[in-house]
Structure formats: structure tokens, C-alpha cells
Here is the input.
Amino acid sequence: MLEARPVPTPSPASSPVSLAAPPDPAWWRGAAIYQLYVRSFADSDGDGTGDLPGVLARLPYLAELGIDAIWFNPWYPSPMSDAGYDIADYRDIDPVFGTLADADAVISEAHALGIRIIIDIVPNHGSDQHQWFREALAAGPGSAARTRFHFRNGLGRSGELPPNNWQSIFGGPAWTRVTEADGRPGQWYLHLFAPEQPDFNWASPEVRAEFEDVLRFWFERGADGIRIDSAALLTKDPALSDIDGPDAAGSRPSGSGPAERAHPYQDRDDVHEIYRSWRAVADAYPGRVLIGEIWLPDAARLARYVSPGELHAVFNFPYLTCAWDAARLREVIDGTLALHTPVGAPPTWVLSNHDVDRIVSRYGRSKTSFSLQARDHSQPVDLALGTRRARAAALLTMALPGSVYVYQGEELGLWEVEDIPAELRQDPIWHRTSGRDPGRDGSRVPLPWAGPEPPFGFSPPGATGRPWLPQPAGWREVTVEREAGDPGSMLELYRRALRIRRAEPALGDGPMSWRPDPDGASGASGASGASGVLAFDRRAADGGGDGAGVSCVANLSGGPVSLPAGAEVLLASSPLDGGLLPPDTTAWLRVQGGPAAG
Ligand code: NOJ
Here is the structure.
């Protein structure tokens, strides 16, 4: 029988910030981390927006789910031009979410339940309502206040043209012209995202000192980790030179040649100095971690961010964007291990987040890969197929070595809401592309907790506000209330998988080895994956447990496959068929005699 690791008993400590997380400095290497999008998690005061008291009340749900940590999307004061990724004050909480005291209470109570807290820091840009930006506008051209951002005179006869040809990642130009105090059109400022998100100038020592102080502020309050937004974009070519070719349009570099390496704002060499100094800050607080949001196709360049003395982990976007295809997944998994193993960093495995389409919809389309540049909501979705595959993907993902992320609602099998009326959409991507890109609202719709109709328990009875994005009526089938206790539900699959993963020393951090094709009928290379089946063994690095280990077999082929002789099924994403593993199904197995030799 598998025994869950004991959850620490809640402490009666009255001072919230003094309650430290349980001691285990390497907790993050194999952690299951829940991404909590506060606006859409639970609304305690009935205004239609999720908040921290709502989170506090639902922490037992997360403890029962079996996660080790929560990553909170930004919770700071913000005009919400980009759902909180436009921060006006890095040391406070937005009133719509609550207060600093509420954050303290959440951190404290989460720690008491054995759950660690990761917060989101956005260092590339702030908000146009940040005090520094207001000072910069007031102080005028040439002022010290403007050196904290990228202000430049425009080109053209009267400065009417932007300083260079950079385009915003959200669409439109990356420069906005300001009106100076005398009422005349003046300088331009850089914003790689929306105009409300001015980029900080990381060549400024003040900017560097400020963010190190912000890190300390949250570490002192008990945060166990920092998710670093847009981590590869911080430093810019001081000449702010034009970009040739497709990158001018805000796309990310697609190769690893010298031209891409010299990109004026993407993955520049001097960004690493910043993370070395952040690492020194984090190391002063035991068990604190730094996790980078870095979209880079070049594995060697990505590895530099997790080399010793820099970040602890980076998000695995090649895995997140990969098609539901065994050969391609095998390539991505091998590539991920090849990147991480030499530098000693644990891989991360992510299926979805608040920026991408929900997997149930994605896997139910004919095109199952995802691209930020080609979000497409015009394809038909087979929800039953997508759900079946999402279940199989969840078990595959949770069996891989390293840490795993679960985006809120993934555990309920929520689908992408594709029919949000235009007038209710909030994502700047939708607005700045005039709706050509459907944007990310569809993956951010408030969670359904209970009941037969919206707001599905997201807001309390008698709420005055509607959920900030409309919930589809069909979510009555996927509420927490409906799924809890139903052995066939996505929620119970996640609960059981996370419970086994936590109890099983072979899962989480540690080595893995591929199995040969389970039918012996291997494909061209003979490797797992070639015939549409991914099969691998996990065994505890230190020989912990009974040494039996766990094997994982994911069948992405079109027909059923047999399982290794004598295998005991610990968990399967769909029922077996006459002892065979059906298509789009993953099983976790205890194999007699232990895992196959590597
Ligand atoms: C990445 C975040 O995940 C996304 O939501 C945000 O819009 C951009 N960075 C800009 O901060």
C-alpha cells in the first residue's frame, strides 16, 4: 500500500509571517506546483473577482489535491491592463484581491498545510501608474527619473516617428509618445508589451537595487520562491538598434545563429549578471527558489539560465507546446533531459498555463501543438477525445523526472472558452490585434466549484458582481462538487496521481530510463516512441522505498498495446481493455522484477 507523506499539523502560531515552510531545502526538485490565477480562483466578497480570502477558504481543497506548492500570478496593486502583469507597487496587494495581511494569512496557512508559496515578479516592465513612471513623466526629458525607463527622442523632422522599428509582443508598435508637461508631444518610451507596461532600464543601478530589495521583501514575508516573468527580455542593446527581419514584428527568435544571439532585447548575455545577483539574494534564505519564464528554442542558451549560481529552474515550453505525438514528445523529453542533466537542474513539466489554450480543447483539435503566434479558435474541438488525451497526458507528465505544474482548472478538465462575447473580453492581445488573435481570456474563466449554474459557487450567494469572465453553462458537469468522489472524474485522477507521486520515492526528482517498445515490435529506431508508445522506468536515485520503482506506459498509437508481463496497474487514465492498454491511455505500473534494465 502506498502511504502519503504526513501533512504537518497546523500550527497555532499567531504571527503569520513567522511561520516558516517545512524544512527541506531541495523541495522544489520534484515538487507538484499548482498555478493559482487569483482573479479566477474563488471570490469571497461577491464582486465577481477572485481574492485572497477566497484562496484562504479553499486551501484545504489544494491540500487534499496533494500539491506541494502554489504559484500565484501577480497579486499586486495594478490597473489590470494586462491582468496584473502591469504592476504599480511591488510591495503591496491590489485591493480587489485583499490586503498584505490577507497575503500573510495565506502564506501562513499554506505553510501550516505543508504547501509552499511561489510569487510572480515582473522585472521587465512595470505599470504606467508606477510611482517611478509618473515621476519620469513629470520630470521631463534628460531627468534622472527618466533613466529608470527607456525614454528616447523620436525620429523624423519633429520627433514624430518612433526611435526604432521594434514591435510590441502584443501587437502594434513597441513605443508610445508622451505629452510633456508643457502640453506638447515629447519623447517616446519603450514597452515590449502593452503601452501601459513601460520597460524598466536594467542598465540603471537603481532598478537593479530596487528589485533585489523587492525579492528580500517577499522572502522576509515567507515566500518560498519567485517566478520571474519574461526573464530573458530584461537587458537591451544600449543602441536600441533596429531589428531586421521577422523579429521586428515582436516574434521570438526562432534559431540559434549569431544573428539571433545578437538580438537587441532577447536573451542577451548581460542578463545573466542579474540572475547571479538574484541567486545570491535567494541563497541568503534557505530553501528559496527562482524559476524563469523563458521562451527560447535554443537548448544550449536556455541551459545557461539554470547553470550553477543562476536560476533553480525554467519552465519547459517545448513540452507545453508539443503535439500529442509520441515521436515528438520523445524528442522533447530527451532534449529536456540533455539540457538539464549536465547542469544538475531538475526539469519542469508543464501542460498549460494562463497564456495558452486549455489542453482539453487543444488535444481535441486536429492540430494538437500550440504556438503563441498562431492561436486558432476556428478549428472544431472533439471534447471527449481531448479529455481522454488530457488524462493520458497528465499521467505521462506526472511520471517524468523533475517538478510538475498544474494550471488551475486543469485538474477539473476545463476546456477553453472560445465564445466569450467581444465586449466582455479583457486581454490586450485581443484588443491590440483587433480580435485577429483570440488571446488568453478563454483559459482564464473563473473556476466552477459547485451548483448547476453560474457562478457555480465561484462567488458567494447574493453576489453583486458577475464573474469577470462568463462561465459556460456546460461547466455544470465539471464543478468540484460534481467531480469529487466520482472515480471516473479528472479531479479524482489528479488526486490519485498526485498522492501516488508524493508517496512513491521513484517519482518526482531522479533518474528515468526508456523501455524498449512494449510489444517488442519496435519502430524504425527501436526506441520507445517510434511506434506511438512512450514507455519508461523510474527508480529512486538512492534506492529508497522497496526498490521496485514505477514504470509508465503511454499509448499514443492508434491501437491497443500489451503491458509488460506481470505488471500490476497502479493507476490508468482510462480503463484497460481485456488487459491491453487502449489508445490515448497512460498507465503507471509496478513491474515484477522491477524496471527493465536501462
Ligand atoms: C508572461 C505572462 O505569463 C503573461 O501573462 C504576460 O502578459 C506577459 N509575460 C507580460 O508580462
